[in-house]
Specification:
The chain is mainly alpha-helical. The protein is 51% helix and 9% strand. The protein has one domain. It contains four helices and two strands. The protein has a two-stranded antiparallel ribbon with strand order 1-2.
Length: 91
Amino acid sequence: MLNEYLNAVRQFCELQAKRGRTGQFIRYQILADEVNDPTLVSLRVYGVRSEASVVIVAAGTNGIWEQLPESEIILPLPQQLQQLKAFYGVG
């Protein structure tokens, strides 16, 4: 279920990027001090470090071992993440 959840997050981010509607997602510029630490991006966006996998997927990287691009990414809103977690049974 975790892979399906992360695939859904990736699809959401890609769809929102194409639509370009503001207010329905978070635009976040990855800074130089964050490229090696997706947990720091998670902390700054969501207030917790546990959403690092969402940051990794939204940035288009494959894992914690890859640097995040120093560019703008699109992330789901916290309530959208909760809905996806509930749907896919991810705690």
